[in-house]
Structures are given as C-alpha cells and as structure tokens.
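[#protein-structures] MJ: dropping LDLRAD1-like C-terminal domain-containing protein here for a structure pass
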Amino acid sequence: MIGVILILLMIIAAAIVCVAVLALPARAPESRNCITPDNFTGFLCDDRRTCLLPSQVCNSAMDCGNGEDEATSMCSNLPNNLPGYLIFRCGNPQFWIYSNLKCNNINNCGDCSDETQPLASCPPCPDNWWPCTPVLYQYCNCIPKSLCRNGVQDCVNWSDEYVCP
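AK: finished. structure tokens for LDLRAD1-like C-terminal domain-containing protein:
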C-alpha cells in the first residue's frame, strides 16, 4: 500500500513539475541593439558590455568574445538576416551599406542616397568640410577642406579654389 502511495505521489509531483515548466512564459528574444561610443546604434555582444559598430558585424572577424557577431544565422544571407537597425538601404534597393556608414560624407551607395535627403536625413557639412557639388563621385554634398585651394577643381562651381577659406 505504501508503495502505491509513493508511486502516486511521484506521478503527482512529476505532473506538477511538467505543468510548471510548460506554463512558463516563452523567453522573449534578447535585444541586441545598443549605442556605441560614437553614438551609432550598434550590436550588443553576449557579455552585455561590448557594443560593436554595425560594420563590425559579419565582417569575418570575431569581435565579440563568443563570436556571436559572426553567427551563421545572421551572416549567411546578407543583408536579409541582419537586424534592420544595422543596415541602410540605398536609393537602389539592391544595394545596402552598414548604418554607421550613412552620413559620413562619403558616397558609399554610389548614388549619394546615403548622404542626401530624403532617405538619409544627414546634417549639413561639418566644420572641416566645404559645401558644394563635387566633381568626383567620391563625395556628395561636401568635400574635405583639405582639398580647398589645392589647384584642382573639386567642386563643379570652382568654389573650392576661389571661395573656400
């Protein structure tokens, strides 16, 4: 009789454990977005301290201690498997860049969509840059002031040679 009671108690205990485990809410996916020291939205490593620039994710270098920034689940189908906050879609949606390369005064998309309105919403040229329409496609709205008065036409209107300080 005691043996039957023990078996029943074990079955009841197992049932309670099963109900408790199955009734636990599903664990919400962890957020990986963070803010880098350069004020970009970045990728948070498993250590919950290291925040990588978007361009450090899926770059064939393990920048996170456990290599989660190079996980096959994320890096196997770029950019489709990357979190949306890590990428910027260019004017031609077939092309993309990492979001930290947007608004860096360099024509990374090839069509200047990463440097101009309405897609990129970039601020005006920084202090060490000259606003103009550049001759070369390397730049979009500004050129580095180091190119001013260098004897080479870098702006369509020659302002880099005659107006730029």
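MJ: nice. The radius of gyration is 27 Å.
AK: one more thing. Residues 24-28 have pLDDT under 50 and may be disordered.
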